[in-house]
Amino acid sequence: MNLPQARISKILPWSCVDGPGNRMVLFLQGCNFACAACHNPHTIGQCNDCGDCIAACAPAALTMVSGRIAFDPALCTQCDACLVACPISASPMAVTYTVADILLLLHRHRAFLSGVTVSGGEPTLQSGFVRDLFTAIHAEPALADLTCFIDSNGHLGTQGWRDLLPVTDGVMMDIKAFDPTLHTAMTGRSNARSLTSAKLTHAAGKLHELRFLLVPGQTDSDAEISHLIRFCHDLGGPLRIRLNAFHPQGTAGAAALAPSMPHERVEAVAEQLRAAGLGTVILPTVWL
Ligand code: SF4
Ligand code: SF4
To answer: Is the CB of 145 under 6 A from ligand 1?
Structure first.
């Protein structure tokens, strides 16, 4: 039987910062962007069972079994040495879950939850799983009042959104940069599809929140902020905008040595957005 399933790097049973209310968050493995400022760089790649991380694992939680990497969580000390060793930003600790597995987890934590959010990585790379999971949640009487949200970089195409939006209650969408050259330099991809996705999800009444990461010397320029304001005005209607502030914790490479975004600059940008008539502007939940 072809069970709907997904590779998932981590599951948070409860989170109050990944959409409205208290939510279970599934971090799906794999991303089509390669952001220099990524805080979860080990969620970008999909493991190809090369075995390079085995030697890095002191407690031998990783072994090769029939040509596939095998992970024993009972032995893992969560030192993350395997993530550093991986040459393709993958994780040997990602686990395959079926829709039925996730429904069981949701039933277990049901009393504390108002919804589920798929994040990543980029969850829409495994859109068949997301669609089947959300459909199953809405069809199950004991879970049907849970809301189903997607946290996305927006690179999914129009047809993909047409498949997902009917079973999705809300989308949190990241716009990494407005200048096309800057966006490509920051992510490795064009921003054209992300901008289209923001318009499409907003027109469908499903854009819960537009997110913009302020990175010192890159996306905090006057030109980027002016473009953000124009883009939001063009979308029209009520809109929530979340400003996130870059900080180097959890990043890799040159980003790990880069300075944090100053709080004062984030607050000044928020004031600028409010003064431009963009009423609901949310500041970072946690300052680092
Ligand atoms: S995080 Fe776990 S699996 Fe990875 S190297 Fe450390 S002990 Fe081994
Ligand atoms: S996680 Fe990375 S290093 Fe380890 S087996 Fe997979 S691809 Fe190779």
So the answer is: no
Rounded to the nearest angstrom, the distance between the alpha carbon of 64 and the centre of ligand 1 is 14
Task: Compute the radius of gyration of the chain from its Cα atoms.
Answer: 19
Would the CB of 72 count as within 6 Å of ligand 1?
no
- pTM comes to 0.93
Terminus-to-terminus CA distance in the chain, angstroms?
Answer: 47
Q: How remote is the CA of residue 119 from the centroid of ligand 2, in Å?
A: 21
Please state which CATH number belongs to domain 5-43+94-282: 3.20.20.70
The domain locations on the chain are 5-43+94-282, 48-93
Instruction: Identify the CATH number of the domain defined by range 48-93.
Output: 3.30.70.20
Ligand 1 atom closest to the Cα of residue 62 is 3
Q: In this predicted model, what pLDDT tens digit does every residue of 68-127 receive, in sequence order?
A: 999 999 999 999 999 999 999 999 999 999 999 999 999 999 999 999 999 999 999 999
For 36: left if phi > 0, alpha if psi spans -120 to 50, otherwise beta; the answer is: alpha
Q: Is the CB of 68 under 6 A from ligand 2?
A: no
Tell me how far apart the alpha carbons of residues 125 and 129 are, in angstroms, rounded to a whole number.
9
